[in-house]
């Protein structure tokens, strides 16, 4: 753990930043992508054709299948049926699941248009 602005956090040596900072960055990126997409559509600068929508639908289906599998795994770890190597790795899996769900929501909104 290292101190960051007076707060302690788990330092991620791969990302080179605190896990909390990495989580916020991932969330900000997802929100900015959604906002950019909405702006593009609002300006009428992009028309969805059937092929493109079908690709988004396929991606959504594949993603939701992966979410289900990861959610099952996390549930089993929480129930003590499976042992995860470290708390940090489990926290990363939980965060990954959250981000995947956010992304699925974005795809779902894109399909609603």
Describe the structure.
- With 113 residues, this protein is mainly alpha-helical.
- The protein has one domain (2-112).
- Helix content is 70%, strand content 9%.
- It has 3 helices and 4 strands.
- It has helices spanning 19-42, 50-78, 87-112, and strands at 2-4, 7-9, 11-12, 17-18.
- The strands form 2 sheets. The protein has a two-stranded antiparallel sheet. A two-stranded antiparallel ribbon has the order 3-4.
- Strand 1 and strand 2 (7-9) form a beta hairpin.
- Helix 1 packs parallel to helix 3 (87-112).
- The radius of gyration is 18 Å and the shape is flat.
- The model is unreliable at 1-7 (pLDDT under 50).
Key words describing this protein structure:
single chain; 113 residues; mainly alpha; two-stranded antiparallel sheet; 3 helices; 9% strand; flat; disordered N terminus
């Amino acid at each position: 753990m290292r101190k960051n602005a007076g707060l302690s956090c788990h330092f991620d040596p791969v990302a080179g930043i605190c896990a909390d900072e990495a989580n916020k960055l991932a969330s900000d990126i997802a929100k900015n992508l959604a906002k950019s997409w909405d702006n593009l559509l609002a300006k009428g600068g992009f028309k969805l054709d059937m092929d493109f929508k079908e690709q988004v639908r396929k991606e959504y289906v594949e993603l939701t299948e992966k979410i289900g599998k990861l959610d099952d795994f996390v549930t089993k770890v929480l129930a003590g049926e499976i042992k995860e190597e470290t708390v940090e790795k489990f926290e990363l899996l939980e965060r990954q699941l959250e981000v995947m769900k956010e992304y699925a929501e974005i795809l779902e909104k894109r399909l609603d248009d």
